[in-house]
């Protein structure tokens, strides 16, 4: 093994360690959030759960606006300064980003809290969601500062701390919803308990950030560089808004076109499809600072090899999970209860862009971390426009099925554009020949799934068989490089 190969292997081992911690936190967070959403959906029923879904989606968009793209600047520049041991400017970047985004979110929150009907009636023409919008809007500054804190922990590669920060909010939500179900509390009380859980999560996140600042960072000799921070963050601000709108516009338009009873069912399918992206989400949290580091050091060979390795394995896992969710969509959606039975078709459609997302890997993050954020902005705006046009055409005719189709096309287009730009404009190849191993595994899993579907075996057992076959295939298709890395990881662990 050459020195360069050895360095790449070390990077991948570090990436696996970081992404494992990040993935553990992400899986726990998403798992707990899924439990919370399932319990909430069952407790409230599709209609009231739909109200909550609209309010939560509006909060997500508001947070994206409030952040002003500065959480990306924190990830980018704090990682850079921290690696250079320039702790003063790392502190300056964090302080400026938290001050600007925190102040902006507070102003937006106050406006909506005092005039909630501007949203509930003015936008959605549904006065029944007024209290939902009003209460959840209080969380704008809370969620904004939580995100800034998480980006900072990611930048300094404190993945275990970031995982704790991730998990805490979802844990409190599950505890509170169990309390709500036991005591039979009103819907408004549920909303206030959600506010409380977010406040507790913020306290934990800020405590972790404060510890790092106290022991590591310094404000002596720093020079504030707002233009540099904003120049990087603002394109990603618009890009983030476009992407957030693209992921939520279907919910808003289903509500807008008067099909509010389907919003909750559609959201259940949307959340379940997100499970497929969990491995990529964990990887992205760990790989972002590594991409930035290697790119700044002009180590393109190591960066390319790292990206190719990670994309191949994310593709393998994504295809496996995606095919399972596609085949058993009608059964999996019933986690929310019998009232959500017709959401299976929504889930089967929404799975498709998640598979595309897995196969294209971390290409969107590569654009951001290699200072091609303007391309990410163009991609997101283009995909948003396509999504809106398709939703306006399809939702009045086909309802939520039309929304799912519009979202699937737009998200797939976004990921494909990112992949092409990384390969052609950035000059980094996300794939090598080993990607065909992942495609082959996925193809075989699909065939096995279809064959099992024609048998009398219960669907839960069919999934077990598919997972076993998929795992055996994955091991059998390991490359020599994979086996060397596996030995190295085991050796370091022992």
Number of domains: 1
Radius of gyration, CA atoms, in whole angstroms? 22 Å
Kindly state the percentage of residues in helix.
over 70%
Broad structural category: mainly alpha
Rounded mean pLDDT is: 83
Architecture blueprint of SSEs:
Elements: H1 3-67, H2 70-83, H3 87-114, H4 117-120, H5 130-137, H6 140-155, H7 159-183, H8 187-215, H9 226-256, H10 263-273, H11 278-296, H12 300-327, H13 329-332, H14 344-360, H15 363-369, H16 373-398, H17 400-426, H18 435-453, H19 459-476, H20 480-493
Which key terms come to mind for this protein?
single chain, 494 residues, mainly alpha, 20 helices
Please characterize this protein's 3D structure:
This protein has 494 residues and is an all-alpha fold. The chain has one domain. It is 83% helix and 0% strand. The protein contains 20 helices and no strands. The chain has helices at 3-67, 70-83, 87-114, 117-120, 130-137, 140-155, 159-183, 187-215, 226-256, 263-273, 278-296, 300-327, 329-332, 344-360, 363-369, 373-398, 400-426, 435-453, 459-476, 480-493. Helix 7 (159-183) packs antiparallel against helix 8 (187-215). The longest helix is centred in the N-terminal third of the chain and has 65 residues, at 3-67. It is globular, with a radius of gyration of 22 Å. The two termini are 22 Å apart. The mean pLDDT is 83.
In short:
The chain has helices at 3-67, 70-83, 87-114, 117-120, 130-137, 140-155, 159-183, 187-215, 226-256, 263-273, 278-296, 300-327, 329-332, 344-360, 363-369, 373-398, 400-426, 435-453, 459-476, 480-493. The chain is mainly α and 494 residues long.
